[in-house]
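Section 3.1 - Work completed
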Amino acid sequence: MRKHTRAALLCVTAALTLTACAAGKGGGSTSEAAAAPGQDDKLTLTVWSNFSDREYGEVTKALKTFNQKFPNIEIKHEGSQDDDKITAGIRSGNTPDVALSFTTDNIGQFCSSGAFQPLKAYIDRDKVDMDQINPAVREYTEYKGNRCAMPMLTDVYAMYYNEDMLAAAGITAPPKTMDELYDAAVKATKRAPNGDIEVAGYLPTMGFYANRPTILAPYFDAAWETADGKSALATSPGWTEMMTFQKKLVDFYGHDALERFRAGLGQEYSADHAFHQGKIAIMVDGEYRTAFLKAQAPQVRFRTAPFPTLKADQYGTAFTTGTIMGIPKGAKNPGAAWELIKHLSFDTDTIVGLANAIKNVPSTKAALESPKLEVDEAFKTFVDLARSDKLKGNPVTPIGDAHIKAVTDFSVSYQSGQVPDLAAGLKGVDQNIDDQIAKSGK
C-alpha cells in the first residue's frame, strides 16, 4: 500500500493531539545540533516505519548500509508503525530515534508542535546541500521555514493508459489536455445492452484510488491558499474547472450507473485492481504501480505519460509526495539519528538501491542521474517528471489532512447532484478550512 491510502490520520482535530505530544515525557526538542557519534561508538538506533512485508525487508537492507560508516551502531527497525503509534510514543516517552512517516499531510503538525525536532542546526553545521533535492520535495518536508523532516524517496504521479483499449477506440496518442481526456474517456467507455458500464474510459469519482484533491490540483492549476494564507477554493479558477470536469464525466456515465460500476471494482492494492482487470482504460497513479502491474497483471499492455492538464502549456506538471524522516521529541540518540537520516537522504548508492528495490523515485539529483538507477520505458516518465521544474508538492497546514477531507467530501456531494450552487459551495468549504486553521492556534 502507498502513502495516500495506508497512512493513518495523525489527528483529525489537528493541533490538540500533537500539542500533547510536545508536552510528553523524555528529552525535549532543541534548536542545537547534538554531537555526531564517533566512528567506533556502540549504541542502538531504533527506527519506526509503516513499511511491511517485502518493502520492510528492503528498507531494513537500506538502513544496514549505515554500518559502512558506523560499524558498531545497531539498527533496530520496527515496521507497521503508523503516525498514531508515533504520536502515542512521543506522549509516553517511548519514542524511536528516527520516525518514518507516510503522511506528508501532517508535516505542519509535526513541525509546529515540536513532535519532530528542528533540523536546521544539523544542516548548517554539516553544510548540507539542500539544492540536491527538488524544491517541491523540500516544501513538503518543512513548515513555515522550520525543517523538521527529510525525504526518503518520492512518489510522482502520472497517467497510466491501456494501450490496446485506446487503440481499439481509435485513439492514437495519449491525451494531453482535459478536453482530450474527456473525449478519450467517452470513446474508450463500453456499456452493456442494458446500459450498465462494462469499461470506464476514465473514472472521475473523487476519492477513487488516486483521484484525490492533492494529486489532481496541480493538473488544473488549482491553488490551495491566497496570498494572505486563506483557503482559495472559491477564488482559484482551477477548483471550479476540476469540479466541472468531473461532474461532466459523472453526468456522461450517469451517477447511479457509475456507483454500481464502482462498487464492483477491486481494492486499490489487490490483484483485482480495476486497471489490472481491464475495467478502466486511463487512470492517474504513482510510479510504484509499474511494479504492481508487472507482478499482478503482466498481461496488461500499458504505457505511462504525464497526466493531462487544463492548459496545454502546463503539460508535464506532476504531483509529488513521499516518505518523510524525522527525529521525534525525546529521541535518546538524536546526534546518531541525524547521521542516519543524512545517510538515507544523500548517500547516492543507498538511495538508488532502495529506489530499485521498491520502485520509488529517488529524491536527489545525483541519484536521478545515477547509471545504476533501473529505468524502463514506463518508469522513465516518472523520472523525467522528477527532474523537471513542474513538480508540485503537498499543501502544508497545521490541521493535517482535514482540508483535503473537506474538499473530497464536498466534491462527492457535488458530483452526486446534492450541491446546486458550486460557487457558494466552494466558499463554504473555504470557511470550513479557515475556521479549522484558526482553531488550531497555528
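Second construct:
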Amino acid sequence: MTTIAGGGARSLFARNTFSKTVYDNRRVFAVWALATGALATMYAAFYPQLTAESAAAVPDAMSGFGLDDMSSAAGYLQGPVFGLLVPLLAVFYGAATGARMISADEESGHLDLLLAHPVGRTRLLLQRFAALAVGAVVIAAAVLAGLLAVRTSAGLDAVGAAKFAAQAVQLALLTLLFGGLATGLGAATGRGRATVFGVTAGIGVAAYAVNGFAPQIGADRLRELTPFHYYIGGEPLKNGFQPVDAAVLAAATILVMAVGAWRFTRRDLAR
C-alpha cells in the first residue's frame, strides 16, 4: 500500500513539474512563437518585391548563409528567412529558455526545495526539458502556419506544404539542440543563468558564423561540424524531409542532455 502511494505521489509530482513549467513559461513561449512566426511571415511576404537586380546585388560573402539562390521561392526562403533570421532566433530561444530550466532555480536557491520532493534529479531535468520542447514545437508550428497563410499571396506556391513542414521539423530540432545544450550545461556546471545563456549563445553564434563563412575560405568541410549544416544543408524546402540530418540533430541533443544528466546526478548542489 505504501509503495503504491509513494509511486503515485512520484508520478503526480513528475506530471506537475512538467505542466507547471509549461504553465509558468506560457507567456514566454507565446511571445517567442508569435515574434518568430510574425518575422518569418513578414520576410517571406517580401518575395514578390524581389527583383533580379536586388538578387544579383547580394555579396558573394553571404552565399554561405543561403543567399546564393534568390531567384526561386525555395532559394529565397532558405536565405533571409530560414538561413539568416530564424536560426538565430532559435539559438537565442534555446539559450534563454534552457538557462531557466535548472540554472535559475539553483541560482535562486529553490532547486534544493524541488529535489526534496519524491523525484530524482534526472526526472526533474527531463521534465523541464520536455516543457522547453513544447515551446520549440509551438515556435516551429507558428512559423509553419504563418508561411502557409501567405504562401499563395506571396508567390511561394512552388514550395509544397510538405516541404514547408520538413523545414519546420528541422527548425524544431535545431531549437531543441540549443535548448538541450543550455539545460544540460546548467545542470552539469551549476553556473548562473547569465553565464549559461552567454556560453550557449556564444557557441551558437560561433557555429553559425563558421557555417556561413567556411565556403569563403575554402573550408566547406567545416560546415559538417556545425548543427546549422544539418538544419538546412540538405535544403528541405527543395528536397523535402532529410531523415539523416534530423537524426544527427536529435542525436546531438540526446548527447548533451545525457552528459548534463550524468553530471547533474553526481555533483554536490551545496553552495
